[in-house]
Amino acid sequence: MPKQNLATNSKAPDAEVVIVGAGIGGLAAALAMAQRDVSCHILERRTTFEPEGAGIQLGPNGTRILGELSIQDALAPLAGVPEYIDARNAATGASLAHLPLGGWIEARHGAPYWVLHRQDLHQALLQAVQNNKNITITTGFSPTFVEPDEKGVTVADNNGKSIRGHALVAADGIRSQLRDDLFDGLPLAFAHKSAARAVIPANKVPAELGQNATTIWMSPRAHVVHYPVRGGQDLAMIFVRKDSIASDDWSTSVPRSWITDVAAEFAAPLKQLLSVPEQWKKWALFELPPVPRWNKGNIALLGDAAHPTLPFLAQGAVLALEDAAILGRRIRESRNDIRRALTAYAQARRHRASRVVAAAKSNGRIYHLDGPMAAARDTTLRVTPARLLMARYDWVYGWRPH
């Protein structure tokens, strides 16, 4: 994305902050700033928001922010509150541990642990944005030129339309063009794993798997996570396996054999569950070395553009919500010095995000252990008190914006 002399630095800003990307992070960032009377203009390349994704888990560190953004009440009827995490051996079907969620985790951290359909979360954020007088959203806008200057930054597309703000927030996802063009980041690296997602009606779930829980099945070649969504009407499933093909598509349909050639070694209830979906949508998993800097002048990165996170700790979207909460606070505190605000935001977030990203990657290794190491993992889960195991994640779920 080249810079271009747009000769617009004398143009009055269209908004104080321009946000590229109307995903979970971009919408939440706009709301967090708009609540503090900061005007925002969101630019989104899509012209419509089609239903996509499957389930999403939000720990207390995420639902707490939904409360701040005043959308928790709208989402509550659609959210599930699982009672525990059921950790299982995929081959034997043995339940190794019930890690407490439900009332226990809410009492411990002051906010609930929710499971939702991703579309429901995105729709609630989008509706709140559309109802906020401090936020404008423009769809069908694909930035092709960016020109920062001392007074602000201008973004333009190939149709000659330009939007100007005092600051630009790049919330354009894991394949962020703005990150690649404006920051000294490294290319994405394929994690040699892919994930497939599906949602099925709850009445098609085998009876023994109908508990109100987040269930994770672990095996050397793959792992499976599933949980009820939409008030228990549906079950969201994620299947993660080793892969050699790095697809660029978020929604590649895969043949059932992509699931079943691994599932053949699984316990009967899990094999039965995995046979239910008529269609699975696959996406490749990527990693990114830590971006050396998140901000440059009056431009900053947010969400997956700054810290792509493997989906093994259920914290990718939550980290974007955390980013949004901190950005809103730093902008409020240094509103007359936008560069200082963005620097303070980046300084507050980089270490936290890097630690969570590393923990998610570590979880992925644990899920796929083999041989004696897998046996040791299973024994540890069986003999360690469940509340002690969960307490190890206090640093994740107990986080609060400040």
Can you say what the CATH homologous superfamily of the domain at 15-69 and 117-188 and 289-364 is?
A: FAD/NAD(P)-binding domain
Helicity, as a percent range: 25-40%
CATH topology name of the domain at 15-69 and 117-188 and 289-364, in short, is FAD/NAD(P)-binding domain
Shape verdict: globular
| Low-confidence spans | 2-8
N/C terminus separation: 35 Å
Count of alpha and pi helical runs? 13
- Quick one: how many beta strands? 18
Strand-residue proportion: 25-35%
Structural class by sheet pairing and helices: alpha/beta
What's the gyration radius in Å? Answer: 21 Å
Largest sheet: 8 strands, mixed
CATH architecture of the domain at 15-69 and 117-188 and 289-364: 3-Layer(bba) Sandwich
Average pLDDT value?
94
CATH class call of the domain at 15-69 and 117-188 and 289-364: Alpha Beta
Question: Care to describe what's here?
Answer:
The chain starts with 14 loop residues before the first strand and ends in a 5-residue tail after the last helix. Strand 17 (295-296) and strand 18 form a beta hairpin. The strands form three sheets. Strands 1, 2, 7, 8, 9, 10, 17 and 18 form an eight-stranded mixed beta sheet that branches. It has an eight-stranded mixed beta sheet with strand order 5-4-12-13-14-11-16-15, sandwiched between helices. Strands 3-6 form a two-stranded antiparallel sheet. The protein has helices at residues 24-34, 60-68, 72-75, 102-109, 118-130, 177-182, 257-263, 268-274, 316-333, 338-367, 371-383, 386-391, 394-397; strands at 15-20, 40-44, 55-58, 84-89, 95-100, 114-117, 135-139, 145-149, 152-156, 162-170, 189-201, 213-218, 222-229, 234-242, 252-254, 280-287, 295-296, 299-301. It is globular. It is 34% helix and 27% strand. The chain has a domain at 15-69 and 117-188 and 289-364: 3-Layer(bba) Sandwich (FAD/NAD(P)-binding domain), CATH 3.50.50. Residues 2-8 have low confidence and may be disordered. It has 402 residues and is an alpha/beta fold.
